[in-house]
Amino acid sequence: MKSKQTGITLIGFLVVLAVVVFFAYMAMKLVPSYTEYMGVVKAMNQMSSEGVDGKSLDEIRRELLFKLGFQYVDDATIHPSDITIGQGASGNELHVSYDKDVPFMYNIDFLIHFDKSVPIQGNVVAPN
After folding, report:
1. Measured at the alpha carbon of residue 95, what is the angle toward residues 89 and 97, in degrees to the nearest 5?
2. Which pLDDT tens digit goes with each residue over 58-79?
3. pLDDT per residue over 14-49, tens digit each?
4. Can you tell me where the transmembrane regions are (predicted)?
């Protein structure tokens, strides 16, 4: 009875290792953007639970940007113009929409679009 060897060759192992390293490097580049987004969601939920009665849009933007600082969201990530308030299905909604450009390698970048809306309680004061 002949025994046959089974397993992976060195070249096969190197190919599998290269694929795993590529996806691990991609994850290392993308995971911080998603953890930053989780901080944005947490700050928006705090604003939603507090309410915005009697505040202007500028005050809401300022307060949200202040809360984002506690969530370790980079100042260059979200600009005040990315924060809006509009009508949703259940009333007023706080809406944040922004793009994040993540350099990957050489001239290859990832462009990630984040978009989140949460209902807010209270009335927003109209701008002057």
Report:
1. 130
2. 888 899 999 998 888 888 889 9
3. 999 999 999 999 999 999 999 999 999 999 999 888
4. 7-28
Q: Which residues pair with 91 in a beta bridge?
A: 88
Calpha distance 59→114 (Å, rounded): 23
Domain membership of residue 4 (yes or no) is no
Q: Is 124 exposed, middle or buried (0-12, 13-18, 19+ CB in 10 A)?
A: middle
Distance in angstroms (rounded) separating the CA atoms of residues 100 and 50: 28
CA–CA distance, 114 with 39 (Å, rounded to integer):
12
* Beta carbons of 47 and 117 less than 8 angstroms apart: no
* Count of structural domains, the chain: 1
Query: Could you tell me what percentage of the chain is helix, strand and coil, using 3-state DSSP and rounding each to the nearest 5?
Result: 45, 30, 25
Task: Enumerate long-range contacts of 12-15, CB under 8 Å, 24 or more apart.
Answer: none
Put simply, whether the predicted model's pTM sits higher than 0.90 gets the answer no
DSSP 127: P
Range of the domain at 44: 10-125
Give the length of the chain. Answer: 128
